[in-house]
Amino acid sequence: MKSYQSYLDQKHAGLNTPDSILNAVVHRATGSEVVHKQKVILGEVNEVYAITLRNGKHIVARISRSEKPRFLAEKWAINQVKKIGVLAPEILLVTSVQHGDEKLTFSIETALLGTPLSTIQDHVQVLKFVRKAGAILAKIHSVKTRGYGGLNRFGKGKYNTWFEYMMEAKRDRDLAVEAAEHMGIEADKIDKVIRTLEDHQALFDVSPQLLHSDFSTKHILVNGDKITGIIDFENCRSGDPMWDFAWWDYFFGRDLSVDILRAGYEQVAPVIAEFGKKLFLYRLRMGLSFIQYYKKEENEAGMNHAKEQFLRDWKTM
To answer: What's the chain look like in SS3?
Structure first.
């Protein structure tokens, strides 16, 4: 089986923006020239560079090849959380450049001090940071939004209700079944999950709040004993704050209990009602999405994780 790192290395080997284009965009954003750049191979979507400028400043250049890039939605979300004291990058420029048949969309942002929490080896120290991160997540969720689901550049989601967003799973049923069967998961299990989500519609009657929607150890920057920033709001959504807890649990719950994140969160925010039930339902919903996503990406490590998590939740059902 191909490892996750092998998947990332192979994917990023094919993402190579010409220096002439990158340098021109950076100069437009900063007024300075690139003197050093280093490719950052951490994420699954964008081509990313850590850049040192001639004026001595440090920036990050992220490059999307998506037909529907989300950097402007991310900029809106970052601007909102910075207003309430959440440390996050400043977005200097979002722009697109046509390169042959590809449209390259750039987000040029300031580099924050610190390293990803995912690189810290001291488990006790990591747990302390996770608790602190919970309080920051509560601040992010305090931002009010409009609509539900993925945000646009004005901070508005595409759906009128959170239940509509949850029911994307029903609209994508055939894609989910195709991907699931490729992984050895029967179609009737997918249908049972969708029915379970439908049966709990009343729980999805929530007010819209800003969700990071990729709140993870690689997006929490730390230095010394402080959290120095939250990065990568590209996947931001509007909806139920419990979604971010389910995301954390789906990817990190085995080693970093979601209860630690929750403890920090509830120090500064109200106790979350129906926590366990919603955690389970949102894990089911995102599980259907990740089964499709990892199959489309041909990410073997991701497919194995998605299958493992799905079957774990299936046993709970």
So the answer is: CCCHHHHHHHHHHCCCCCHHHHHHHHHHHHCCCEEEEEECCCCCCCEEEEEEECCCCEEEEEEECCCCCCHHHHHHHHHHHHHCCCCCCCEEEEEEEEECCEEEEEEEEECCCCEEHHHCCCHHHHHHHHHHHHHHHHHHHCCECECEEEECCCCEEEECCHHHHHCHHHHCHHHHHHHHHHCCCCHHHHHHHHHHHHHCHHHHCCCCEEECCCCCHHHEEEECCEEEEECCCCCCEEECCHHHHHHHHHHHCCCCCHHHHHHHHCCCCCCCCCHHHHHHHHHHHHHHHHHHHHHHHCCHHHHHHHHHHHHHHHHHC
